[in-house]
Amino acid sequence: MNLNDQFFQTLMPLVLLFGIFYFLLIRPQQQRVKRHQQMVDAVKKGDTVVTSGGIIGKVIHIRDNQLTIRSGESKVVVQRDRIAEVRTPAGDAPAS
């Protein structure tokens, strides 16, 4: 065995391990983040949202990176990235 064969045999398991991690962990997480960002960017006035803190409310005003939502008799200002879920008006089922 020469030096190139030893190097290849040592490096190959590391490359395979990285490939497995990429396809099982990194790529699915990137896809989830992308879908969440698209969902948050599509929020509009009148949508029902759930915040990461569990507050459910209807969007009444959108300003830059902040949403004002009405929850009960209160108005709450939240950042867009704190929206965990956008619900559809019909039946409040989660949006796909």
Count of discrete alpha- or pi-helical segments spanning 4 or more residues: 1
The CATH first-level class of the largest domain comes to: Mainly Beta
Q: How many beta-strand runs?
A: 5
Q: Work out the radius of gyration.
A: 22 Å
Could you describe the largest sheet, including whether it forms a barrel? 5 strands, antiparallel
Helix and strand element order:
HEEEEE
The overall pLDDT average reads 89
Instruction: Name the quaternary structure.
Output: single chain
Shape: rod-shaped
The total number of structural domains is: 2
Which residue ranges are poorly predicted, with pLDDT under 50 across at least 5 consecutive positions?
Answer: none
Helices and strands: which structural class? alpha+beta
Read across the widest sheet, the strand sequence of neighbours is: 4-3-2-1-5
What is the straight-line distance between the termini? Answer: 55 Å
What share of the residues lie within helices? 40-55%
Provide the CATH topology of the largest domain.
SH3 type barrels
The CATH architecture designation of the largest domain is Roll
Strand proportion: 25-35%
